[in-house]
Specification:
single chain; alpha/beta; 5-stranded parallel sheet; 20 helices; 14 strands
């Protein structure tokens, strides 16, 4: 990357020295600041990769208090910025303190411009290298690289997964079938300290009730007819790693009690065994069901719910992820075209319109299967709505693109969300929405919304 015209921020209150540094470092776009307030303003405006700063700043140029306060603020605002601190000739104590706070380097005044320039060049190169490494990590794929999204809600889910992964808390993933719960569960594992151990998944709805206990807890030889050898259960197999319990809402009540005991005691007993076996495993669970409704119906234990729901992550449905259906469709088309030797394939306008307006009750799994089928069935290099199996719905499709309808729906959703957020306080809701109270009442009447939203 060329250094030409890159921004260098110089924090210096001496006008003569400012001029000298502008001249000495003219290969950069040098911006200057004379005090802490100006420096923060320039930092926010230009986002320089490198800063040089004098510790002695107004209002007390002989004191380093203002300088250290500025250094702390800059590193908090822009932690990747390389700050070179300029100190007095014999002020090694403050220089070491500055480096300890996070400054890149220090230089004694008066300085040789050529030597300082070498340090500045090195700081720019280090900054570039760190940025390149960060980009490469993203390109090579993080644990969440399988998630393709631009939706703000889904991005928040990804950030939450990244935050909780490093801890040992039990994570509950809530979302409709096909929204990517197992992908996120694997992300929790891959971003955790357990990443080098096993990730074991079991679908509680896919295994008959009479076999599920053995699958989870294992059994001893002779424990029941057909038990010809000792078999470890999924919990024990996942020792030191992560156990993903998918469709936890389908776990039978007797097994719920046994799972609760394991979560409390962290020991298991195999079927037919008497030995208590300690197991160190992190639990991640998922369901598409409303567990609180199941609790009220007596089909799910409330105490187990609170053991499993230390962190709850709600995954939005594909229809609620603005723009993601088309984004995913393009990615799937490219992937399946490569896998099936179809070369480059594209989606026609009518296919994209149908993808945007379809509700996708099966979410990403349904979309993925539809695009895979379309790639195989398409006659040429273009995928149409007919190939996908979704035909345009004429007036309904045009209605969805009508600006008045779109505007009214957006207004209705905003009013509902804000009224819920402020617990029905009309005055506060009007303030948040930026409208008058009479206007808000008109909107509520138009959308048939009661004040008790």
């Amino acid at each position: 990357m060329s250094d030409k015209r890159r921004t260098l921020l110089v924090v210096e209150d001496d006008p003569a020295l400012q001029k000298q540094m502008r001249w000495a470092f003219d290969q950069y776009e040098t911006v200057v600041a004379s005090n802490r307030e100006e420096a923060i303003a320039q930092l926010r405006r230009h986002e320089p990769a490198v800063v040089t700063m004098d510790l002695g700043l107004p209002p007390a140029a002989d004191d380093v208090t203002e300088g250290f306060q500025l250094l702390g603020e800059m590193l908090a605002l822009a932690p990747d910025t390389k700050v070179i601190v300029l100190t007095g000739q014999h002020d090694r104590e403050n220089a070491v303190r500055a480096v300890g706070m996070g400054a890149y380097d220090f230089f004694a005044k008066p300085f040789e411009p050529d030597l300082l320039l070498l340090t500045i060049d090195r700081a720019f190169r280090l900054h570039d290298l760190q940025q390149d490494n960060r980009r490469l990590k993203v390109q090579q794929g993080s644990a969440l690289s399988g998630i393709i999204t631009r939706d703000a809600g889904m991005l928040r889910v990804c950030r939450l997964i990244e935050k909780v992964a490093s801890s040992g808390v039990t994570v509950m993933l809530l979302g409709e079938s096909g929204t990517g719960k197992e992908v996120l569960a694997r992300g929790v594992h891959e971003l955790s300290p357990r990443r080098n151990e096993r990730f074991v998944a079991i679908n509680c709805a896919a295994i008959p009730e009479n076999l599920l206990e053995s699958e989870l807890f294992g059994h001893e030889k002779g424990a029941f007819t057909g038990a010809v050898k000792q078999t470890l259960g999924k919990i024990e197999v996942a020792n030191k790693g992560t156990l993903f319990l998918d469709e936890i809402g389908d776990l039978p009540l007797p097994l719920q009690a046994k799972l609760l005991r394991f979560l409390q005691e962290r020991v298991i007993e195999r079927i037919g065994g008497r030995e208590e076996i300690p197991v160190d495993v992190r639990i991640v669970c998922a369901t598409h069901q409303d567990l609180k409704s199941l609790i009220q119906a007596g089909r799910f234990r409330e105490d187990l719910y609170y053991r499993l729901a230390e962190i709850v992550v709600e995954i939005p449905a594909l229809r609620d992820r603005d723009g993601d259906a088309v984004l995913l469709a393009h990615a799937f088309a490219q992937r399946f075209a490569t896998q099936n030797g179809r070369g480059t394939m594209s989606l026609t306008d009518d296919a994209l319109m149908c993808i945007e307006t379809h509700r996708w009750p099966g979410n990403i799994r349904e979309l993925e299967n539809a695009i895979k089928r379309a790639v195989i069935m398409a006659d040429g290099s273009c995928i149409t709505s007919e190939d996908i199996g979704i035909l345009p719905k004429g007036e309904e499709l045009l209605e969805s693109l009508n600006l008045r309808v779109v505007r009214e729906e957006a207004e209705r959703r905003a009013v509902v969300r804000v009224m819920a957020r402020v617990n029905g306080n009309v005055a506060r809701a009007a303030e948040v929405l930026g409208v008058s109270r009479p206007t808000l009442y008109d909107l509520m009447n138009r959308f048939g919304l009661k004040k008790e939203i």
